[in-house]
Amino acid sequence: MRGTSGLQEAFGLGTSYVPRQYAQVWKTPPPEWREQLDTAISGLTATELPPIFFIANDIGAEGRAFDALCRIFRRHQVPLAMAVVPAWLSDARRERLFLSAPIDEELWGWHQHGWRHVSRQESGGKAEFGEARALDRQHEDILIGRRKMELIFGPHFVPIFSPPWSRFSAVTLKALRTQGFKGISAAAPFPPGIKLPWGFFNLPIKIDLHTRNSANPAKDLNQLLTKVGQLQNSDDYAGIMIRHQLMTLFAFQFLDHLLYNLKMLGTRFFSFREILQPFDEKKACSRLR
Ligand SMILES: [Zn+2]
Q1: 272: Cα within 13 Å, side-chain hemisphere
Q2: Distance CA 83, CA 109 (A)
Q3: How far is residue 101's CA from residue 156's CA, in Å, rounded to a whole number?
Q4: Separation of 163 CA from ligand 1 center, angstroms?
Q5: 83: CA distance to ligand 1 center in Å?
Q6: Residue 86: which CATH number?
Q7: Which residues are in the CB-under-5-Å shell of ion ligand 1?
Q8: What pLDDT digit, counting tens, does each position of 24-59 carry?
Q9: pLDDT tens digits for range 70-89
């Protein structure tokens, strides 16, 4: 079994690496965490698992943590959807991004995470594309963001939208449909009364690994492992969200072991591009008919 120092070496993180912010659960590894994770995974059956995807949130200004994240996914050859905030990308940041995650490497699913990641709500939870904003305003921001995404990522841009803070409204879906987006990925359920448009994918996040606010680390870890054990209760796609800015060395170790275990189990991992493929093919077929 690899120790912490081996992992730091393998993923390029120094021995003193600590993120600016992190949840209590990721502070200190409890002695038996590997066994606990193994137990949670042992209750799963690959054939009963929904298609799983991993998604890294808030991509823009990147450094060592992002590089370490890319190395882990490359090592396990598991695709990672990259939720990019278009306004955060400068030329220098774009270059640094592609040093860690080369644009022509197939593992990365470059897609749009809002426009500026600024909340526009005056009350309630934060949202850039919430109920407070009218269709034309939402449409405009999504379009500016999309143009920048297409400029930077070209054919590697995947037309899926993940709204900041996971909040969106009926008009967000309308704007996305008008602009030819093919799916949305969020932790929140669909707004009440809204049906999933035909040919449009709902890619729900079932587990948020790093945005956790419990002050009781043991309880929080148990809750997290329970959610891992419940992955096969999802009937559609199941997303696992990563926030690398909040990852401690323990969080990297945990992710590494999670990926290892899920791979050993025979889990089907999907890239965002693969998820859209059947739809594109169907469309191509119907055009030929
Ligand atoms: Zn975000």
Answers
A1: 31
A2: 8
A3: 12
A4: 7
A5: 8
A6: 3.20.20.370
A7: 57-58, 164
A8: 999 999 999 999 999 999 999 998 999 999 999 999
A9: 999 999 999 999 999 999 99
Q: In terms of pTM, does the model score above 0.85?
A: yes
What confidence category does residue 1 fall into, taking pLDDT thresholds of 50, 70 and 90? very low
Hunting for tokens 């109920």 — which residue is that? 131
> How far is 252 from 7, CA to CA, in rounded Å?
8
Q: Is residue 276 part of a domain?
A: yes
Which structural domain range is residue 247 located in?
Answer: 50-288
Local structure of residue 269 (DSSP, 8 states): B
How far, in Å, CA of 8 to CA of 282, rounded? 45
CA 150–ligand 1 middle distance (angstroms): 20
Q: State how far the Cα of 236 lies from the Cα of 224, in Å rounded to an integer.
A: 20
**Does residue 35 lie within any of the structural domains?**
no
- Tell whether 280 is covered by a domain: yes
Mapping DSSP to helix (H, G, I), strand (E, B) and coil, where does residue 158 land?
A: strand
Q: What is the band of 7 on the pLDDT scale with cuts at 50, 70, 90?
A: low
- Find the DSSP H helices in the chain: 4-11, 33-42, 64-76, 91-100, 135-153, 170-178, 217-229, 249-265, 272-288
- Phi/psi at 87 (5° precision): -65, -20
In a domain, 153, yes or no: yes
* Sign of the CA dihedral with 220 first, then 224, 226, and 230 last: positive
Distance CA 224, CA 251 (A): 12
